[in-house]
């Protein structure tokens, strides 16, 4: 049975399951417009999730065939997974920020082997042990999920109102979790007249009880490998996703919405307080990492020593890759702030506090 919540003022949410994932559900929002309902995110591409989505829309008094448009907060498969099926069923447009559309395009074009080769090279550069990399060098065991995501047909332009007849929904670019993540600000009086400015669909950017993953912006065309050392830096700017994320957090805090409608967990009122909590969390994490970097460490060694939700030797394979990417995004921030640097001549490259 679809779980439907009425948030009033022409906004409802459907709790769409994510199979085999501790996150549990994606909250797909249904926003009424003069041209028909518009979805914010769609959910994981799985038969049960699809049934939940379509049943939920029926329970809302509409149907998947009536969907006018699909607005995607970011390209991850728990948000964008079902967009293609919704478009097929309804003829709806799909809108996404250009930076995430570029990721979708790369994902569709790069063969799986190329992704595995990219991952293997990246892990080797991060100092991962050979036994961790070996499975990637062997033939890919199975296709990765979400390798053929739908190509959006509209750009979400930062700062602009989306073309939703009868509604005021403004795109706020919040890079960090992904390069093209957006929050969507519903610039309308809160239906319960809570103090603040409208409501904010926050995607994965601002969640009540989870710190979103901030890794590197994965890109198989990015062969800069090492983080910031001058001898490996090629043309183009080295990205700083954690720096982007912290800036985006402050931007969203300044909007002061009356209520946040996130893509997981549950709605909550005080965006500014949650932003402060997350800024403090990252600040103390960076301070903790600087203490670990009293001795030179590779990103892998740093990840092994960082605090996770369980001991390193009990972290499963895939999560270790995510953890290393998270360690790298923190290292990049510290290097950019001038608080850590690459050790000259180290291979794989190690980093030390300065
Ligand atoms: Zn995400
Ligand atoms: Zn998510």
UniProtKB/TrEMBL annotation:
Residues of the Metallo-beta-lactamase domain: 25-264
Disordered as annotated region, ranges: 221-240
Keywords recorded for this protein, A-Z: Hydrolase
Record-level Gene Ontology MF annotations: hydrolase activity
Top-level lineage group: Bacteria
One Pfam family cited in the UniProt record for this chain: Lactamase_B
KW Hydrolase (keyword) present: yes
SUPFAM superfamilies named in the record: Metallo-hydrolase/oxidoreductase
Name of the protein described by the UniProt record: MBL fold hydrolase
């Amino acid at each position: 049975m679809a779980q439907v919540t009425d948030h009033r003022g022409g906004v409802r949410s459907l709790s769409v399951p994510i199979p085999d994932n501790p996150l549990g559900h994606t909250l797909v929002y249904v926003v009424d417009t003069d041209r028909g309902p518009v979805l914010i995110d769609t959910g994981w591409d799985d038969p049960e999730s699809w049934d939940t989505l379509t049943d939920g829309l029926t329970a809302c008094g509409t149907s998947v065939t009536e969907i006018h448009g699909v607005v995607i907060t970011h390209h991850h498969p728990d948000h964008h997974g079902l967009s293609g099926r919704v478009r097929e069923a309804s003829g709806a447009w799909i809108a996404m920020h250009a930076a995430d559309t570029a990721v979708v395009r790369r994902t569709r074009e790069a063969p799986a082997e190329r992704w595995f080769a990219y991952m293997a090279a990246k892990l080797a550069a991060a100092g991962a042990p050979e036994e961790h990399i070996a499975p990637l060098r062997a033939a890919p065991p199975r296709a990765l999920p979400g390798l053929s995501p739908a190509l959006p047909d509209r750009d979400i332009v930062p700062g602009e109102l989306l073309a939703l007849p009868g509604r005021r929904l403004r795109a706020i670019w919040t890079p960090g979790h992904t390069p093209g993540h957006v929050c969507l600000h519903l610039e309308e009086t809160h239906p319960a007249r809570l103090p603040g400015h409208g409501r904010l669909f926050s995607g994965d950017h601002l969640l009540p009880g989870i710190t979103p993953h901030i890794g590197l912006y994965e890109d198989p065309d990015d062969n800069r490998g090492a983080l910031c050392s001058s001898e490996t830096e090629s043309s183009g700017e080295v990205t700083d996703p954690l720096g982007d994320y912290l800036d985006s957090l402050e931007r969203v805090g300044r909007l002061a919405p009356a209520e946040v409608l996130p893509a997981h967990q549950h709605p909550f009122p005080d965006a500014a307080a949650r932003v402060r909590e997350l800024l403090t969390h990252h600040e103390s994490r960076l301070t903790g990492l600087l203490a670990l970097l009293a001795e030179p460490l590779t990103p892998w060694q740093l990840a092994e020593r960082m605090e996770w939700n369980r001991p390193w030797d009990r972290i499963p394979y895939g999560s270790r890759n995510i953890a290393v990417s998270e360690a790298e995004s923190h290292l990049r921030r510290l290097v950019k702030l001038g608080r850590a640097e690459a050790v000259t001549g180290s291979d794989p490259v190690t980093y030390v506090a300065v």
